Each structure stands twice: as C-alpha cells, then as structure tokens.
Amino acid sequence: MSSCGGASPDSIVAARDHRWLPDEPRRAPMTVLGRGDLAPPRRGRRRRSPYAAVLVVLALLAAGGWFGWRAWHGSGSSTLKPTVVCVTPTPSASPAKGKTTKISVFNGTTIVGLAHTVAGQLTRRGFAVVRVGTGHAMTGPSRITYSPGEVDRALALQEQVPGATLYELSTQRPGEVRLDIGTGFHRLATPAQVSAARARDLAAAAPSPAVCTTPRG
C-alpha cells in the first residue's frame, strides 16, 4: 500500500523517530544570547586596591575634623569673654613727720643770711635743723637731697618749700636731709599750702584700687 507523496511507511516511521518529517524543511540551530559561541567573553572581577579605601577614609576624617574645628571655633568665639587687664598703681612713699626729720640748710643765693632765716622758720615748724651754712651757687629752684630709702623725709621738707626738686644721693648722710636754697626761692609755703601738699602726698601713698581695662583687638 502506497502513501501520499510516494513515501513508504518505513520512511515515515523513521522520520517520526528523528522528530522531523521529510516534507518539512530542516531549521538551522539557534543560539541564545548570553550562551554559546555568540556570547561576549565574560570579564573577571577586578580586585579593589586597598590604597583607594585608605584614601577615602583619610578624606572623610579630614573633612570631619575640619567641620568640627569650624563648629568649635565658631561656638567658642561667641562665648569667650574679652580679656580684662588690671593694673594696680604703685603707691608712693608716705611723708615723714617734721619732728623726726633732721635737716641742714645751705644758701645758694647771693642774699646774705637767707639760710639762717629759713632755718629759723623751719625750726618753728617742728624740724630739727642740725647745720646751717653757705653752699654752692644754686640757680633756679631749690634742691632737696636725701639718702637712698629716705624719700619720706625729703617729702616732708618739700611740702614746706614750694617748687623744690628731690635728688637722691648715695653719699648723703643717712637720717639727714639737705636743703640748698636756689635763686627761685621766695618764701616757705603757707599753712594752707602745706596742708594741701600733705593731703596730696598721703593720697599718693594710700593703696589705690586696681584699674581694669579691656584691650581692644
């Protein structure tokens, strides 16, 4: 018995066993992308360099430190109080009392007997005059010479002689103050002038409160 198309039964059976029919065209093999010969070669995974990780960490630390410093500096500058500088004035020496001051009087002018006149007036005011004489010519204001560490005795005498200048001398006799009357001398101070000078000297010798200032930046 013949079949359609002139194919024998055995050939039909054989064709079915191979999953294709002789009348159907054979299909070319198909390749799925990603598989087979047409797929691109796969690249191996690159290892990350440890140096890159270290650099990243250092950069983060530097950034964090910078922002932290800015925050601390900004907050600190707003809370810091300005520096206050206090200066305590150095007190001056307190004038000694006239009765405890020994003085010598010398005339440096051309006025005869001026030293004795002034010495008598100072004696009546409580000073102990130990010597009177004629000294070197003294042009200008009178001069009061005292031994180191005895400026208090010199101040007591200066209160009596307006315009007199103080002069410390290491060779001056200790415990004795020397008055050289200059051409600028006119007379001793009045009681009111002496009181004002004494008050000024005592105020300078009193402890003064500290003066505090804030320096400008």
Explain this structure:
It is a single chain. The protein has 217 residues and is an alpha/beta fold. The chain has a domain at 98-205: Alpha-Beta Plaits (2-Layer Sandwich), CATH 3.30.70. 34% of the residues lie in helices and 15% in strands. The chain is built from five helices and seven strands. The protein has helices at residues 9-17, 50-79, 114-124, 151-158, 191-205, and strands at 85-87, 102-107, 128-134, 143-146, 165-168, 176-181, 211-213. The protein has a five-stranded mixed β-sheet with strand order 3-2-6-4-5, covered by helices on one side. Strands 1-7 form a two-stranded antiparallel ribbon. β4, α4 (151-158) and β5 form a beta-alpha-beta unit. 16% of the residues are buried.
What labels would you give this structure?
7 strands; alpha/beta; two-stranded antiparallel ribbon; 217 residues; 5 helices
